[in-house]
Amino acid sequence: QKNKGVWNMYNDLKGQVAIVTGASSGLGKAIAKRFGAEKMKVVVNYLDQEKEAKDVVNEIHRLGGEAVAEQGDVSKEEDLDRLITSAHENFGSLDVMMNNAGIQTETYSHEMSLEEWNKVISVNLTGTFLGSTKAIAYMLDHQIKGSIINMSSVHEVVPWPYFVHYATSKGGMKLLTQTLALEYGGKGIRVNNIGPGAINTPINKEKFSNPEEREGVLSMIPMKEIGEPEQVASIAAFLASEQASYVTGCTLFVDGGMKLYPSFQAGRG
Ligand code: NAI
What we know:
This protein is α/β, with parallel strands linked by helices and 269 residues long. It has helices spanning 26-37, 50-63, 77-91, 114-141, 164-184, 205-209, 211-218, 229-240, and strands at residues 17-20, 41-46, 66-71, 96-99, 147-151, 190-196, 251-254. Helix 1 (26-37) runs parallel beside helix 2 (50-63) and helix 1 (26-37) crosses helix 8 (229-240). The protein is globular, with a radius of gyration of 18 Å. It starts with 16 loop residues before the first strand and ends in a 15-residue tail after the last strand. 45% of the residues are buried. Bound molecules: 1,4-dihydronicotinamide adenine dinucleotide. Residues 21-22, 24-28, 47, 49, 73-75, 100-103, 123, 151, 153, 196, 198-199, 201-204 line the site of 1,4-dihydronicotinamide adenine dinucleotide (NAI). Residues 21-22, 24-28, 47, 49, 73-75, 100-103, 123, 151, 153, 196, 198-199, 201-204 line the site of 1,4-dihydronicotinamide adenine dinucleotide.
């Protein structure tokens, strides 16, 4: 039943140019591969996993797309500029900007240093701001009715103790995306969020390898399954495609029902 394969569904995506940030692992990697299967041209951004990024590039070629690997830190303005230049110089356009890169750490809020706070905010929220607005500037310049997709989380609406910087960054992404969608809707540029729940990626490796913690997470998911990266990648392909041509300012949650107040599932309350 699970969509674990790499699908090809949206013919209009063929030949379109995308940047995927943080594409050397987890959700970014699955999305880059899915875009490759859709025969897109993909700038595979990585922070420090060069080999993994090159493997993703090879995989995209195998799937029938085109790709280049490009190092860059999304919290740095000049690095985002370089990613956009890479899309332009290698592939001549930018149609889809997938701001996926994100980090988290676990700390009591009253013990969190300003440095730790700033780090998560600068990658997750400022990185998404930079990626979105620079892509929009390019699209306006080249009269492209493109799609901006931002990787948010169920934590754009669900509070998360010990992860105050993360929850704040994702909550901020909700209004970042909605504001940009409103501001540029008239230009035909769509801006949407994906809101994953608990997905099987390196960010959760430690948690899911501990049986007790894994059970704890499963008890919070009405569908009683951890999600797979491909189940998120399919939503990115949909939001990028013409099939979502009238969808903007939305967060599409991909969470097995995680934010439906699971403690009410048995009729309690
Ligand atoms: P991951 O840790 O495999 O992926 C994060 C990627 O971002 C890595 O490739 C990392 O190298 C890259 N990265 C980190 N800092 C960067 C920077 N400054 N510049 C460029 N790249 C950078 O974990 P995962 O799960 O694939 O995370 C991807 C996104 O999905 C994140 O934004 C995360 O918050 C979000 N997410 C993940 C969920 C999950 O259950 N896995 C749930 C909800 C949201």
